[in-house]
Every structure is written in structure tokens, then in C-alpha cells.
Amino acid sequence: MRRGSGGGAGLDISNKSAKPRLRSAVVDDLSAIAELEARELAPLAYPYFVLRQLFDVHGSRWIVADHGGVLCGYALLAVGPDRKAWLIGMAVSTHHQGRGLGRSLLERALTECRIGDVVSVSITVHPSNTHAISLYKESGFTWVGYDPEYFGAGEPRQLRVKQITADTRWPVDPNDRRWSKGEHLPPGE
Length: 189
Ligand SMILES: CC(C)(COP(=O)(O)OP(=O)(O)OC[C@H]1O[C@@H](n2cnc3c(N)ncnc32)[C@H](O)[C@@H]1OP(=O)(O)O)[C@@H](O)C(=O)NCCC(=O)NCCS
Description:
Layout: E1 21-24, H1 30-41, H2 48-58, E2 63-67, E3 70-79, E4 84-92, H3 101-115, E5 120-125, H4 130-138, E6 142-147, E7 157-163
Parallel strand pairs: 4-5
Antiparallel strand pairs: 1-2, 2-3, 3-4, 5-7, 6-7
Helix pairs in contact: 1-2
Bound molecules: coenzyme A.
Residues 40-41, 90-92, 97-103, 125, 129, 131-132, 134-135, 138 line the site of coenzyme A.
């Protein structure tokens, strides 16, 4: 899973024991992101080409964790014209999980949002993904919606949102065309 030699200028590949450092993603990270996606999120992983297209639009806000030249985590942010952001991808490689890296990536993404005057950040998560849900809850993402077939037949999602700037509007409009069926009200978490 080593990245190509073109990206990550200035990496210290001799110091593999150092903590991963967070930095902005570059295009040469995409194949490693695709590999990590496939390992951690199959069968729902983004293929390389989708990442490549998303990167063209949103990549300036993507953050990776770099461990001596090896990509070991990422947080992919997309901000819409309404200043509402989505965390459209996040993963930490198995070897690095459980050491605070996922939380650091998420905090860095939230800092990007604050700097960018973002109103809210939304996250789609499968209800069975208890580790991720625990992290999101602890970071202030509240349950605002559920779609029973978001990932396909019988594959639901939870939608969680964290407000960044003061905004009294409810973040999910039940008449939003992106909602097809399912519950839209929070369970009182
Ligand atoms: C979700 C994920 C990114 C978390 O990354 P991580 O580096 O392991 O997380 P951290 O070590 O920063 O832990 C942050 C919190 O996550 C939760 N968490 C992480 N590992 C956990 C575990 N084994 N059991 C329960 N909760 C866990 C906890 O709430 C933890 O907070 P705590 O340490 O205060 O208890 C990582 O598990 C992952 O890549 N999973 C596969 C891909 C994925 O599901 N991505 C999210 C898609 S929505």
C-alpha cells in the first residue's frame, strides 16, 4: 500500500515508528485511498475512478494520515454550495485502529469546516458499524434520519449531523427529494 513516489514531498520514510502525521491529500494518494477503502469498506468501497472524480471537485479538503510514506487513514470532506458539508469517506487501516487516529482525522475535518464557515456536517453510516457510530456520537453527531435501503435492498443507513455554525434550521427536510422512504425523525438520542 505504498504510495507512488510523486506524492507527499518531504516524507521521512526512515522513521516508521513515528506517529502518523496528518496532511492534505494529493492526487497520488488516491490509489492508496482506494486500496484502504476496498479493505475496510467492501462491498461499499468507492472505486478508484469515483475517488478520482470526487477529488477533482472536493479534494482540496481531503486529509490523509501518513506513516513514513504509507497512507494509513483518510477523511474525505465534500462541501456543497449551501455550506453544508458531508464526510463522504473515512477509514483507518486495521493496524492503526484503536489508537486515536480516527478521532484525530475527524477533528481535523471539523476544523476545516470551522475555518471554511461550514454550517453543518452530515455523515452516512451503516447501523451495524458500531465503532464508527460510537466515534460520531462522541464527536457530537446526532441521529437525524434513517433510510432502510440507502446502500441497496435491505442495506440501511443512519444519517447523523453535527452543527458547526449557529443554525436553528432542522438539518433534514423530510420533503427533500433525496429522501425516498423510511423514518426521518430522531429517536430522541
Ligand atoms: C471508524 C474508524 C475510522 C475509527 O478509527 P480508529 O482510529 O480506530 O478510532 P479511534 O482510535 O480514534 O477511536 C475513536 C472512537 O471510535 C470508537 N472505537 C474505535 N475502536 C473501537 C472499538 N474497537 N470498539 C468500540 N469503539 C471503538 C470509540 O468511540 C473510540 O473512542 P474511545 O477511544 O474514546 O473509546 C475505524 O474503525 C475504521 O476505519 N473502520 C472501518 C472503516 C469505517 O467503518 N469507516 C467509517 C465509515 S462511516
